[in-house]
Amino acid sequence: MISRDKHDRMANAIRFLSMDAVEKAKSGHPGLPMGAADIATVLFTRFMKHDPKNPDWADRDRFVLSAGHGSMLLYSLLYLLGYEDITIDEIKNFRQLGSRTAGHPEFGHAAGIETTTGPLGQGLANSVGMAIAERILNARYGDDLVDHYTYVLAGDGCLMEGISQEALTLAGHLKLNKLIVLFDDNQISIDGSTSLTDSTDQCARFEASGWNTMRIDGHDPDAIAGAIESAKGSDRPTLIACRTTIGFGAPTKSGTAKVHGSPLGAEEIAGARKALGWDAEPFVVPSDILDDWRLAGLHSAKERKAWEDRLAAADAETRGEFERRMRGDLPETFSAAMLEYKEKLAAEPPKVASRKASEMALEAINAALPETIGGSADLTGSNNTKTSQTGPISAEDFSGRYVHYGIREHGMAAAMNGMTLHGGIIPYGGTFLTFSDYARPAMRLASLMQIRSIFVMTHDSIGLGEDGPTHQPVEHLAALRAIPNHLVFRPADAIETAECWQVAIESRKAPSTLALSRQNLAPVRTSHEADNLCARGAYELAGSDDDARVTLFATGSEVEVAMAAKALLDAAGHPARVVSVPCFELFEQQSDDYRKAVTGNAPVKVAIEAGIRQGWDAIIGSDGIFVGMTGFGASAPAPELYKHFGITAEAAASAAQKRLAELG
Amino acid sequence: MISRDKHDRMANAIRFLSMDAVEKAKSGHPGLPMGAADIATVLFTRFMKHDPKNPDWADRDRFVLSAGHGSMLLYSLLYLLGYEDITIDEIKNFRQLGSRTAGHPEFGHAAGIETTTGPLGQGLANSVGMAIAERILNARYGDDLVDHYTYVLAGDGCLMEGISQEALTLAGHLKLNKLIVLFDDNQISIDGSTSLTDSTDQCARFEASGWNTMRIDGHDPDAIAGAIESAKGSDRPTLIACRTTIGFGAPTKSGTAKVHGSPLGAEEIAGARKALGWDAEPFVVPSDILDDWRLAGLHSAKERKAWEDRLAAADAETRGEFERRMRGDLPETFSAAMLEYKEKLAAEPPKVASRKASEMALEAINAALPETIGGSADLTGSNNTKTSQTGPISAEDFSGRYVHYGIREHGMAAAMNGMTLHGGIIPYGGTFLTFSDYARPAMRLASLMQIRSIFVMTHDSIGLGEDGPTHQPVEHLAALRAIPNHLVFRPADAIETAECWQVAIESRKAPSTLALSRQNLAPVRTSHEADNLCARGAYELAGSDDDARVTLFATGSEVEVAMAAKALLDAAGHPARVVSVPCFELFEQQSDDYRKAVTGNAPVKVAIEAGIRQGWDAIIGSDGIFVGMTGFGASAPAPELYKHFGITAEAAASAAQKRLAELG
Description:
With 664 residues, the first copy, chain A, is an alpha/beta fold. In chain A, 43% of the residues lie in helices and 13% in strands. The N and C termini of chain A lie far apart (89 Å).
């Protein structure tokens, strides 16, 4: 048991490391670490199951700092608890180039940072995914191997963001009772008191969606401990509203917006030292306090050892699969399974929508990979995300492999990220491509974190038809391709869809989006190649660069338009070739030689895509011909829209012929 | 008073028009119109203040169909009530090319469509903006001129989307008691029963944020009327949860997901005709019922006349301003005021961040235009969105001109759209550029609707520094430029900022985003031109095409980098010119001659922008040199980041020189 005095000094260590680091960096957010230090100290000294020496322990409790601007809270904890990645020098280098202690916590910078946070609400939604992952893996591997809590520290900002509603309603519905949210209820946001803009009773709000809630004094260690203890016994997820004073200890600025996001200044820090009785120099933690923290870091070492023993005692197959899944490796049989599936397709190439082709590919993938967990934001039948292997999970039964995410695209994407981060799961989830806009902040974070979340985005153009321009993506391919480290696939037929899915599954360091058609597509790949042609981003599909006067580049549903244009051009005596471009990003990564060979030497280049031109110049040149959209779509049957907007083989062929004539 | 029998027949008219139109289109959503027909009938026959013959009546009640997929409900109503834009032929042409009856309601297609809906939750958030606009205009013009309700029909989808939380918490806080939300509580979503994915008690949820709530039988006309009557007397916004049966009247499919989004089929429709005692042919409304509806459409004619009389009786200045604002015209003095402000700037060009320059411009704009309403998503001090004229509004006092939107970027953008749609207001609202991702679905709709919402996006690059890659936009300029009909401005100094603001304010048919720097920028425009150079999208800032060997194109904070690069190149004997490109979209709209002249003939073209290349090829060509970002940013002081990522005058000059050498 930690005495109150010791608790206070341990919490103050967090406060002063945070104040000092922000002061030295001349930048950062001292308010949250100072205000939430008591909460964090209780959590990490009395509850957190983790092992700083083995930070990747699969069954550790997860701690998510959803209020990521309070990064110094996390860095202080990691340093104090003995995580090797965060040294005192890293703390001193807070927010400097190359440091592990970035302005906001960045996944991958240091062990112990479970997710990248800062964009508000994301961490909370990630944590819902982590808690779902825990339950799913628990259902598969039992309490012996998977049985941990997910703790979240969230602020007013997280709870005001809409994504928090999507996350909490899903968590409440699934009764994720091992999810415990500590709400740093300091009533202050950047513009001032939260009463400027909000009157929500957060406890009542969470209760309305089935949560257990409590209100406590966030500076009373016993109250905090009692609340967490009680939360652990609940059959529902718990929100603990901890009333705190932001910047606790700052003599004149605490409790105000001034302490939120700026250095306190030397005078205020000196005042805090006096007020809290802290004599140590900046960045110095008195050795007895550091010892106490390091000791706290050892609390779960025995528990981890016992867990290792249980893992060792498990049957070899279970252990092997568990370890493989947690590493994120694929079974060796995977590529053979995909090849076999492709062979089957090549034998009788189906004319199906690529969303249907995706379902067929998933049927093969889900059979080969027990770790895939599907889902959709209430468009299951349209996204074709459900296969024979994927029964839905529910509060009563987590043995399924499908999540009905509800009409919550943003929450879905962020929860998927949480599952990926948890490990042991490869999540994929669907909505319409146009609604990628709703999920975009989470999709961006997946890219930044370099994690394998897979977004299934169907109805990928005006090809969706009558639903009209609100539902027709036009700029979305370009907008998603703009995100660094995001693989955007737009396959042209069933074989390409299988290949793209395989690359997405095998890309451990990048998320993927599959843009898929609503409408049926004629097969363009009919022969079987062992090679995954889509893995190179673009490839020559038809014709030859030897004699081609025109190269037609296209993606997805427009590849068959390009093939028809080629036929027209060939017939008119202008040999043409077709290059399919399922993934810009991967094509960009190829060697210059390969790219030049694929781009080819034909004097006329035409790109066909039912989206905007932006991004295509990199392939066809700024003098290339683009056949696509220049504005929003319209509401009408799809074939009429293609004609109306001039995305036809005739239009492409005639533009190419006109250009050829100009060239003489 | 309408008898129950008459009510039923009037409601059935909506049901059959909807069924028949969806059936003929072979596409659409019959479930909601059939389920919500009773609600809509009560609302429009007993409450709605509107005049089909004068649909733009400023003080009409607004009706927002947030569940936009139920568009046939709205089209049926407009036809039945006598709105001239929606004829029976338009109903028959539902979802066909060129019809006014698009798949989802589209603002601008027909009078009576108050906003474009379909992307779920947007309409609800629009309505919060409309209700805010009503209160603000009421505070200015009094009950005589502005005193109306905003009614919303929302479904489960709207309420599951996170944006609904942002909207309802803001509405509850502001006690928008003239906002009445009719929740079509049919417990069905596309994947099946909402119990698959949600357990939220919606009434309890809304109450937690200060709403008045009721639960009623959504098929009982008197219960509906009683609830609306009671809501009108509340001092808080009201949610009326109307329990309905989706697809009411469909004999085998009602109450199931099957009736949500597909034609019912001839047999089911025949069954419905039988069940509901409806003998009329498809698209025929028995004349007595049509007469009753048309009569209902005349209910408010007298009230409108009385309102016209009050407006006529108002003093000329008030009336003039009111009418001008509602038309969306600017006062004639506006351009002179902006010119005067520019002259002042030119006399002493300040070295300020463009976010500060924006505040200065707003100081002039807000003085000239009483209709601007500012705000920020809790970043007021950072976005510099508040000026001396803009005190905050609150539940108690709507005479202010500033909205503390809270940490609700998406809700803010959608509420701004609602204000714009209401009329009488030009809203602008701020957040960090990177969080435009959170607001993107609403920003897209502003573009699609062609309305003047103005988004102030500060901290527009790695120039924000230490907050790191989560907060550093990299792809956002490209992603926003990708949206059709969206003006993305990135001004280089105070004068450009003033010019861009002026164009944004004057662009009645397009929303604007101003991307603004955190860091100070040296003035690049020091002389005074009467012309608004930014209005042409790009212009020659320095040097001359006569002798230039290099043209440097840049935007915003990188224009001063380009100017420094020009100095280096000039000194090295390679005359250079600089083109500032504050707005791609506007540049694209210029004549070929102008564009050619600005692009110039220098053999080497370099673009400098602290974002990704995507989109720039249209200006510099695919062989042009790009100095910018290729991936995510990092956490460090801004000057270090510019060096680290090589966005410097030296890098630009040396790349240009290398290319010149290659060219020989």
